[in-house]
Amino acid sequence: MQTYERNTSKKPGAEKPSAPGFLRRMCAVVYDALLLLAVLFFAAAIALPFNSGQAFTAGQYYFPLYLFGISYLFYAWFWTHGGQTLGLRAWKIKLCNLDGSGIGWRRASLRFFAAILSWAFLGLGFLWCLFDKNRLSWHDHLSKTRPYFMPGENNRRPN
């Protein structure tokens, strides 16, 4: 896999990709949230027959855990298989390790839980990229991953 840190050629278009801006990130977040919502509706429809077709109650703790697991799999699978969710692909953002290599399941898991932490502090973890010199958020720092803005590329894996 191509690494972005080692690219030293002076050809046009060969420069190191930059980190995406805050607005671009938030647009990808909204896009992915809508997709995840659709996935969660489908997951709930699948689980409903196992509850005799009845609505889930607050006392049934396994249902929120099930939906949380589906959410984790949604993000982690996309990040480990090409570094892009559909929202990231639409906004030309790709996630990589700091050296430009692909993200494994361990880093994806760390990033997922760190992103929850970023949201838990009223989104301050996401806003952090506005003040960080490398435009990285809390979950980028904690998981040792980074998003790259890939202008002019279709962001597809080579065959």
Summarize the structure.
This protein has 159 residues and is mostly helical. The protein has six helices and two strands.
Which percent range describes the beta-strand content?
A: 5-15%
List how many beta strands DSSP finds: 2
Q: How far apart are the first and last residues' alpha carbons, in Å? A: 12 Å
Largest sheet: 2 strands, antiparallel
The neighbouring-strand order within the major sheet is 1-2
Write down the overall mean pLDDT: 88
**Count of DSSP H/I helices:** 6
Radius of gyration from CA coordinates? 18 Å
- What low-confidence regions span 5 or more consecutive residues with pLDDT below 50? 1-9
In N-to-C order, the SSE pattern is: HHHEHHHE
Shape: elongated
User: What is the helix fraction of residues, given as a range?
Assistant: 40-55%
Helix/strand-derived category reads: mainly alpha
